[in-house]
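Here is the promised in-class demo. Please do not try to memorize the tokens; focus on the logic of going from shape to residues.
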């Protein structure tokens, strides 16, 4: 799991501790392994090569997975799908913009009328 979190941190710009907050890593790693296979994942984790188009596509899919909670599909694979409601609610895009996922519970009645916290307030801290 640490290897996946380290790779994800490098690709998303979020600290490993931030990626642990919603405990989504096991679920997301499962999706990656199911969609691209263990061998392709190992190649990406070992030494991403920007000249390898397959690894670039997988890296981009992994970034989208963390930011959106959905798998966008890849060459020769199936189409896009939402991983789970929890992955959608915990997607990094909501932290990056300082908001909450639409359709998820907010902190109380009328909370929509309050300004969102400042975008980037602690989100995506650099190591």
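The designed amino acids, position by position:
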């Amino acid at each position: 799991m640490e290897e996946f979190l380290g790779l994800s941190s490098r690709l998303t710009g979020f600290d490993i501790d931030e990626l642990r907050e919603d405990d989504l890593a096991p679920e997301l790693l499962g999706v990656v392994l199911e969609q691209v296979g263990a061998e392709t994942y190992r190649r990406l984790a070992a030494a991403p090569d920007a000249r390898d188009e397959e690894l670039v596509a997988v890296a981009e899919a992994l970034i989208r997975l963390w930011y959106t909670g959905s798998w966008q599909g890849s060459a020769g694979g199936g189409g896009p799908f939402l991983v789970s409601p929890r992955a959608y609610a915990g997607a990094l895009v909501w932290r990056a913009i300082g908001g909450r996922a639409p359709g998820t519970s907010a902190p109380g009645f009328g909370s929509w009328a309050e300004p969102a916290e400042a975008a980037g307030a602690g989100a995506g801290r650099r190591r």
